[in-house]
Structures are given as structure tokens and as C-alpha cells.
Design a protein that fits this description.
The chain is mainly beta. It has two helices and 55 strands. The two termini are 62 Å apart.
Length: 703
């Protein structure tokens, strides 16, 4: 069941009180699996399945099959009792951990791949129970009750205490470190769970926002399609915040998001419009693609290599878009019309099938698709790869030829005119917005021009002739806080020889910037003006509108431009933590923190109030009773003052109140550092009783 199907089932389940526990417990007793490995036939043997493969369900037959991916052949199966047939079964695969989840009853079963039989089976929840396994950890999530629990992936018994979140819960995921992440849309939050306890939550939207969790290269990314943004997490928390194109927030349209991707690029599809966004969670950059898709029922897009695969359940096929060439490729038939497709990527291969139909397809990283039958009774001979099915109803019948009646219609065009440019793409790169397109067909085009360029922005080139390699315009300038949409028009001569043009639909939205990555080389230096914090922009951050957020234990967050700031409220020697983040109209980042020890720079002041024959003492501590370090006779000596500190009260022998106090200067002498009572140094505030208070900058406090 895909993510969109999960949401529909959740809405139905949460609107009624359905009890499944008794059914589940009954099924545990009935569950029986027999194993067959083709060419062996001995159920008690130890079996070795292909290292690169996947388990697929065949619910109408009550069968689970294992398929060798490179060979596109079934190499093992496990048959369930008839009572399990036609239930919605989800297969959870993590290395040698293979779990079957009955979504109708909440029964979870473990298959031992070496024996091809169920070794454990337990009722762990109810309708639409989620079971997740990754990095050797396994969890259950009850989306209706809000309960989360770690389980042993072998015995299926609880590990540690459970926890409860505010239901209903969205589809969860497990990161590369084995931590469970659960979106809680009722609160607009995502909550991690590990070792029996809930970890601190992160706000990723408003209460009721539509949240989708993606595990991209093992790291959690929360897509908020209500607010059109994405929050990217790393090992230490939020790493990046990205504003997505406003098309992601299309009204009355569900944005389809895959549950996981093997790389950092995440495809997002607005199924009602065909607006495709490719978000790179590693860099925060994204690209928009205007796909022209029929108004069908889709499952979340998947990415493998340079290709995006869009499961079309109405036609039972995969639409294919090649990001390397910027063009659509021939669709891949999977099953019949009105299918319930399950499509996922595992170990560098894409798998697609309808659990209720016999046909399935595996696609490799080069886009080569191979069909196979899930109900085969023996290893087929001949070539390893089987011909692709021709589509149809799933029983071998080919649908009538001709275009689908619900394909998007194009406005009528003049006779002899070419088609408008199609599949416009947008991205920001190299300091400019890039607008690509596919050329027109038919007619006699003479060139292409870009339209809707606002005043103050510069497009290059002014026009593109036909039959050139790169069909792309660049637009420089613009405001990072705004989105821009462009059209591309084909120029041609009409039947009367007049110059005419025909414009495309608007491009996907694009900003003239990308979300900045965390600042680099953050440094802190003690200066006479305070603590100077400096940094370099994050890699690839080239937007002049980027602002930086600087904070410390003593300083509230300051929002500035530039790559340095002096904090005048920091002038005490000691340890500090400084944090520098950055943001612009496209998003922001978690920033960079440093821990440093700062010691203020020394200042030079002459000795005063040490008349002829008088002695100024430097003590080991800020106390006149402590050991003597050094002495100065008379005035005229220049002191190296390191810092100021409060110490023991001092009273001058002449009882002059102007010479009584507890402020000391730490000074450097030929015999080492020591402390001298404050009035003896001619600091800017030393007149009268002014020396009794800290001078402040440029002189730092000692501690």
C-alpha cells in the first residue's frame, strides 16, 4: 500500500471504532507457511536466496515470493493458508530481517529466509499497523492509538517501554542510526523515539499541517506540503530548512512524497497538476519540472539513478522522466488498468507490482526494465530477462489502441503552427535562474524566446535558434523573497508568412537563490572592542541577500548582513559558545557552533599616585596580604595591564576614601603576573573614586 493509500485508510479507520484484536489473535493460530525453492523441493533444507532481491506479495494466491533482481526470476516462495488471502500484506525488509504485516488485522510474522518459513507470529496492533525495520532495529507504530514500541526483530517481543503520541500519526521511518521518527500532524511536530523513550520534538509546521516523512539516504526529511517547506535533519538535529515552490502547496491537491530514497534527491509530485519538484536534501537546492500527466490516480514517485518513476494506477504503468536528458521516456507497463501498485527502490533496483496481480517488473539503475511472473512454478528457461508486458487488464489482453481520454488537453493552435514548448524546467545555478524546455513539434519554428521577464531582470540569450544543443535560458537578478514563473514561446511563420509565436504554459516557480548551507570557518577573537566573530558563507552560498544569525550565552540572537560582527557585551575572559546560522528567502540552516576560550588583549597605562619614595606592590593574589611578586618605585613606569578583577578590600594607610576599594589590575612584571590595587594605574576612569568600578572595554575582566 502506497503512502496515499495509507492516508486514505487512516481517514477511514480514524472515523470509526473498529476492533481487530480478536480477528488477529485467531489468525495467529491459523498461520502456516510452507516453503518451496525451485529445483530443491525439500522444505527442511537450508536455502540461499539471491543477495540482490526483494520479497513481493501475491495476495490473491496467498503467496510471498522472493525475486532475484539481476535475473528477474523468482527463486523462492512461501505459501500462506487461504485465510490470509486477499488481505493487505506489507513486507518489511532489512537485511535478513523479513517481516510480514497484515494491515487488516495487525498480525506481524517473521520469515526466516534460510528456511523460507515463518518462525514467529504475533498480534502487535490493529488496522493499518506500521512496522519499520532499519539498522538492526524494529518498531511498531499504531497510527490510530498513537502508540510506538520498539520490538525485537527476531522474537517480535517488546524491547523497553512504549510511548504514546497524539493520534492520528502519519507514516513513520527509521534513520540510519536506528532511531524512529514519527510525524504528529495534530501538533505540527516530528518526534524521535529510541531505547524506549521519546526524544525532544521539533516543530515542523502548524497544527493540522500535512506532513510527510522521507528517509533520504538514511536521514529524516519532513515535507510540509501545507506550508510548502522541508525540514532536513542530520545527526545533531535540524540541518537545513528549505522553502519549496508554491506549487507544492496547491489547493485541494495532495503532494505525493516517497517514504524513502537511497540518495539525497527527493521527488515530490502534485498529482493534480503534474508539478514535479526534485529536492536535494544534501544541498537544499531544488529543481522544478512541468510534467504533462493525465489526471489519473498516482502513487508517490520514486527515483533511481537519473530517472523519476511515477506510478500511474489508472493505467497500471510507470511514467518515466529522465533528469539527465530533461525528457520523458517510454512508459513501463506493470499491471492492468485500475491497479493498486506497490513501487519501491531497494539495493539499487526498482520494483513494481500489483499485489493482487501476477505480473511484476524490476528496473535497474540504467533504466532497463524486466518483467516476470510472480506465480511461476519453476525457473523459466532461456534468457534471464523476460519481455515486458504490453499492458492491459493484467490477464494478457491489450487495451484498445488510442490515446487515453483523460489526457490533458491543449488549447487549439492555428493551422500549421508548431506545438508550444513543453516540459519546462527551472532551477537556480551559477547566480542565475535557469529555464529549460523541450522543443516544439510540427510546423516550421524559427526560434524560441523567453516571456514574462520582469523589469530589472536580464535574460540571456535574447533568443535561441532551432536545432541547437542547449535549450535553456538564464535570467539574472530578482528578489530572493519572490518566486518567478516564465513562459517560452516558439517563433514561426504562419500560413500567410507573418511572424507569429505561441507560448508555453507557465514554468514551475523558481527563486533567484537557494537556501544557504551552514557558515564555515567560524572564529572568535578577543579584541579591544569586544568579541569579534567571523565566518565564511556556506559552500555554494552566493546570494547577497543572505542574512546571518549570531548568538551566544550572553547575547540574544542578532540578525545581520556581512561575515563578521563585534559583540561589545562580551569582555570577560573565559569560555564561550558562539553560534552562527544563515537564512534567506529560500530557507535557512542549523548553523555552526564553536566553543572557545577568550582572553582580552593587554592595555598599557602609566603608574600614578606613587609619589617620590613610594612603593607600588604587585601581589600574587588580589589581596594586600598575599605574597609580593614585584614592586615599582615612584611614578613614570608604564604597566602592561592584562585585565581587572574584584578582590579583598583595601584601605590606604592615610585613610583617604578615594584610595579605598576592592578593584585590582592584573599586570605583567619582569617577575611574572600579579595584582595591583586599581587606583595606581592611570586608566580612563581612574580620577577620584572612578577606579573602583570596572573600566570596561578596551580592558577585559579577568573572569
Amino acid at each position: 500500500m502506497g503512502r496515499s493509500g495509507f492516508r486514505g485508510a487512516m481517514r477511514a479507520a480514524f472515523s470509526r471504532d473498529r476492533v481487530t484484536g480478536q480477528v488477529a489473535l485467531g489468525l495467529v493460530g491459523l498461520l502456516l507457511v510452507t516453503a518451496v525453492v525451485y529445483g530443491v523441493g525439500i522444505a527442511s533444507a537450508k536455502y540461499r536466496l539471491a543477495d540482490v532481491g526483494a520479497w513481493l506479495t501475491a495476495k490473491s494466491k496467498g503467496v510471498l515470493v522472493h525475486v532475484n533482481g539481476p535475473a528477474a526470476k523468482v527463486d523462492g516462495k512461501a505459501a500462506l493458508l487461504p485465510q490470509m488471502r486477499n488481505h493487505r500484506i506489507k513486507v518489511v525488509q532489512d537485511g535478513n530481517t523479513v517481516l510480514l504485516v497484515d494491515l487488516d488485522t495487525g498480525v506481524v510474522s517473521r520469515i526466516d529466509p534460510s528456511q523460507l518459513k515463518v518462525t514467529q507470529s504475533k498480534a502487535l496492533g490493529g488496522l493499518n499497523l506500521q512496522v519499520l525495520a532499519e539498522a538492526g532495529k524494529a518498531y511498531t507504530v499504531d497510527p490510530v492509538k498513537g502508540a510506538v514500541q520498539q520490538i525485537d526483530p527476531v522474537s517480535l517481543t517488546p524491547v523497553g517501554p512504549s510511548a504514546v503520541l497524539s493520534p492520528p500519526l502519519e507514516e513513520a521511518g527509521v534513520d540510519v542510526r536506528g532511531t524512529l521518527w514519527v510525524p504528529v500532524p495534530q501538533l505540527g511536530e516530528v518526534t524521535p523515539f529510541r531505547d524506549g523513550r521519546l526524544l525532544p520534538t521539533t516543530k515542523v509546521g502548524k497544527a493540522g499541517d500535512r506532513l510527510s516523512l522521507v528517509m533520504a539516504a538514511g536521514e529524516p526529511v519532513v515535507v510540509n506540503s501545507t506550508a510548502a517547506n522541508a525540514t532536513v535533519f542530520g545527526s545533531s538535529g535540524v540541518r537545513l530548512y528549505v522553502r519549496l515552490p508554491s506549487t507544492v502547496r496547491a489547493a485541494n491537491a495532495e503532494t505525493l512524497v516517497p517514504a524513502r530514497t537511497e540518495g539525497t534527491v527527493i521527488p515530490l509530485l502534485v498529482q493534480s497538476t503534474g508539478a514535479l519538484t526534485l529536492l536535494d536534501s544534501g544541498t537544499g537546492r531544488h529543481q522544478g519540472v512541468a510534467l504533462k500527466l493525465p489526471k489519473h490516480r498516482y502513487q508517490p514517485p520514486q527515483i533511481l539513478g537519473p530517472r523519476i518513476y511515477v506510478p500511474d494506477e489508472s493505467l497500471g504503468q510507470l511514467h518515466v522522466y529522465n533528469t539527465a536528458t530533461g525528457s520523458s521516456e517510454k512508459a513501463i507497463p506493470v499491471a492492468g488498468r485500475n491497479s493498486s501498485l506497490e513501487v519501491f527502490v531497494k539495493e539499487g533496483m526498482l520494483w513494481a507490482h500489483d499485489p493482487g496481480q501476477p505480473k511484476a517488473v524490476v528496473v535497474d539503475g540504467n533504466g532497463a526494465a524486466s518483467a516476470f511472473g510472480k506465480y511461476e512454478t519453476k525457473i523459466p528457461g532461456g534468457d534471464k530477462r523476460q519481455p515486458l508486458p504490453s499492458g492491459g487488464s493484467g490477464d494478457g489482453r491489450t487495451p484498445p489502441p488510442g490515446p487515453s481520454p483523460d489526457l490533458p488537453s491543449s488549447p487549439p493552435r492555428p493551422p500549421g503552427a508548431p506545438t508550444p514548448p513543453t516540459q519546462l524546467t527551472t532551477r537556480f545555478e551559477g547566480g542565475a535562474m535557469r529555464i529549460g524546455f523541450k522543443p516544439s513539434r510540427g510546423g516550421t519554428p524559427t526560434g524560441y524566446v523567453i516571456k514574462d521577464v520582469p523589469q530589472g531582470l536580464t535574460a540571456s540569450p535574447r533568443s535561441i535558434p532551432v536545432n541547437v544543443g542547449a535549450l535553456e535560458f538564464s535570467v539574472a537578478g530578482g528578489d530572493c523573497d519572490k518566486e518567478y514563473r516564465f513562459r517560452v514561446a516558439v517563433q514561426y511563420r504562419d500560413a500567410q508568412g507573418r511572424a507569429s509565436e505561441l507560448a508555453s504554459d507557465p514554468s514551475p516557480p523558481v527563486r533567484p537563490c537557494t537556501a544557504p548551507l551552514s557558515p564555515r570557518n567560524v572564529k572568535a577573537e578577543a579584541t579591544a572592542q569586544g568579541a569579534k566573530i567571523s565566518w565564511e558563507p556556506g559552500a555554494g552560498t552566493d546570494d547577497p541577500s543572505t542574512r546571518y544569525q549570531v548568538s551566544s550565552e550572553t547575547t540574544s540572537t542578532l540578525d545581520i548582513k556581512g561575515t563578521s560582527i563585534v559583540l561589545s557585551d562580551v569582555f570577560t575572559n573565559g569560555q564561550y559558545s558562539f553560534h552562527v546560522g544563515s537564512s534567506n528567502g529560500a530557507g535557512g540552516n542549523e548553523g555552526t557552533s564553536i566553543n572557545v576560550t577568550l582572553t582580552g588583549p593587554a592595555q598599557r597605562y602609566p603608574i600614578q599616585h606613587n609619589g617620590s619614595g613610594s612603593t607600588a606592590y604587585v601581589r600574587a593574589k588580589p589581596d594586600k596580604e598575599s605574597a609580593q611578586v614585584f614592586t615599582y618605585k615612584d611614578n613614570g613606569h608604564t604597566l602592561t595591564v592584562l585585565c581587572q578583577v574584584k578582590g579583598a578590600n583595601y584601605t590606604h594607610p592615610n585613610n583617604n576614601p578615594d584610595f579605598a576599594g576592592n578593584l585590582y589590575n592584573k599586570v605583567r612584571t619582569p617577575k611574572g603576573d600579579g595584582y595591583m590595587i586599581g587606583y595606581l594605574a592611570k586608566t580612563p576612569n581612574s580620577a577620584g573614586s572612578g577606579w573602583k568600578t570596572f573600566l570596561g572595554l578596551p580592558l577585559w575582566r579577568c573572569e
